[in-house]
Amino acid sequence: MKLSFRLKVYAVVEFTEYEEVEVVPCSWLSIDQKVAFWPSYKDTKRIKVAVVQKVVPDETWGEYFIRVVKMYDTYEAARKRLNKAETKFSLTSEEEGGKRSRMPSMKLKDFMDDTGSNEIRSDN
């Protein structure tokens, strides 16, 4: 009997305070998988590169409460699930009369950085 073990490298997560979903490297998650780091970059292409290359978070990144939807061994598999999760969240929010989107939009991210109230930690 041959056993194969594949390490889960990426996770589809819901940023619970914002009801938004995104793919993040598992290395961006806290040990208890209830918090994720998110880069402070303004450029979405730079964010994607950081995710794909699993860039190590630094002190400028925010920490946000999350719920892990599912973990995957490849970025591509996680992206496929993200699309399904976005559709599910979109359908659910339409029933609730709201709108859900991916985490965090640049405008939302700017607001969170300015107020600091939605982050778990504040930058010194």
Describe the structure.
The structure is a single chain. A hairpin with a 4-residue loop joins strand 1 (10-15) and strand 2. 24% of the residues are buried. Helices cover 33% and strands 22% of the residues. It has 124 residues and is an alpha+beta fold. A four-stranded antiparallel sheet has the order 2-1-4-3. The radius of gyration is 15 Å and the shape is globular.
Low-pLDDT stretches are 98-102, 105-119
Can you summarize the main beta sheet? 4 strands, antiparallel
Strand content: 15-25%
> How many E strands?
4
Gyration radius, in Å: 15 Å
Structural class: alpha+beta
Question: What level of helicity do the residues show?
Answer: 25-40%
Q: How are the strands ordered across the major sheet?
A: 2-1-4-3
Task: Please tell me the overall pLDDT.
Answer: 78
**What gap, in angstroms, lies between the N and C termini?**
54 Å
Q: Number of helical runs?
A: 3
State the shape: globular
Reading the helices and strands in chain order gives EEEHEHH
